[in-house]
Amino acid sequence: MELYITPFSPPCWSVLLLGRQLNLKINTKSLDLDKEEHLKEDFIKINPEHTVPTLVDGDLILSESRAILSYLMDAYAKENHPLYPRAAKARALIQHRLNFDLGTLYSRFFVYCSPMWNDKATSTEAQRDRLCEALGFLETYLSRSRYAVGDHLTIADFSLVASVSAIDVCYVKLEKYPKVVAWYERCKKELLGYRKLWLVNSRASGSF
Ligand SMILES: N[C@@H](CCC(=O)N[C@@H](CS)C(=O)NCC(=O)O)C(=O)O
């Protein structure tokens, strides 16, 4: 399996974390977005949307980190694995949290924080408020259960923790969300190789 990644990318980070948790052999190929390596013809042939992470597993090419998380579970984890249980209602909630992350939490983080990465643009109060509202939603979910869904880790936590780790370094005070902070600390301890993989996510290609 090959996984195209780029340094310091939350969606890449979530896939790397799950790969480690499942002990999968994944060969990473790092693309330098500043050098527009993702816009080169070779990569566009693989992924016309030129985004990372992109997984190549035999004849399957898959982008969108949350689709990759689900695929890795379906293809490589044992049936009814606790990280992605078979039960319809549990799976529905996991899909909800993954979609909440994609469409609300990570999306609002990106709208608020990406202007800061561009010297010419500034972020607005309204954008910040929208991100804080999304963190409030997560706080509510985490006041109902210990993890994103239920009382144990699921793939929803892998996606959400990657977003929260990015928000954490983006001038947003997480202390206002005590359930989020407690869950975030728990995930940092329980996700295998959390700190080591941050290094993999921040440097060149290789296998892990
Ligand atoms: N929703 C996608 C987002 C992927 C994404 O936008 N990745 C960024 C890096 S963090 C990227 O590839 N940017 C380059 C581009 O969009 O051309 C996912 O979760 O995989």
Average pLDDT confidence is 93
The amount of helix comes to 40-55%
What is the makeup of the main sheet?
5 strands, mixed
Order of helices and strands: EHEHEEHHHHHHE
Low-confidence stretches: none
Estimated share of beta-strand residues: 5-15%
Query: And the CATH topology of the largest domain?
Result: Glutathione S-transferase Yfyf (Class Pi), Chain A, domain 2
Description:
By secondary structure, the chain is α+β, with helices and mostly antiparallel strands. It folds into 2 domains: 2-79 and 193-207, 3-Layer(aba) Sandwich (Glutaredoxin); 88-190, Glutathione S-transferase Yfyf (Class Pi), Chain A, domain 2 (Up-down Bundle). It contains 8 helices and 5 strands, in the order E-H-E-H-E-E-H-H-H-H-H-H-E. Helix 1 (10-21) links the parallel strand 1 (2-5) and strand 2 (27-30). The longest helix has 26 residues, at 88-113. The model has no long low-confidence stretch (mean pLDDT 93). Bound molecules: glutathione. Residues 6, 9, 11, 33, 38, 50-53, 63-65, 102 line the site of glutathione.
Summarize the structure.
The chain is α+β, with helices and mostly antiparallel strands and 208 residues long.
Per-chain topology:
Blueprint lengths: L1 E4 L4 H12 L5 E4 L10 H6 L7 E4 L2 E4 L1 H12 L11 H26 L11 H20 L10 H14 L9 H13 L3 H9 L3 E2 L1
Parallel strand pairs: 1-2
Antiparallel strand pairs: 1-3, 2-5, 3-4
The structure holds glutathione (GSH).
The site of glutathione (GSH) has 13 residues, from loops.
For the structure shown, list the relevant keywords.
208 residues; alpha+beta; Glutaredoxin; Glutathione S-transferase Yfyf (Class Pi), Chain A, domain 2; 2 domains; binds glutathione
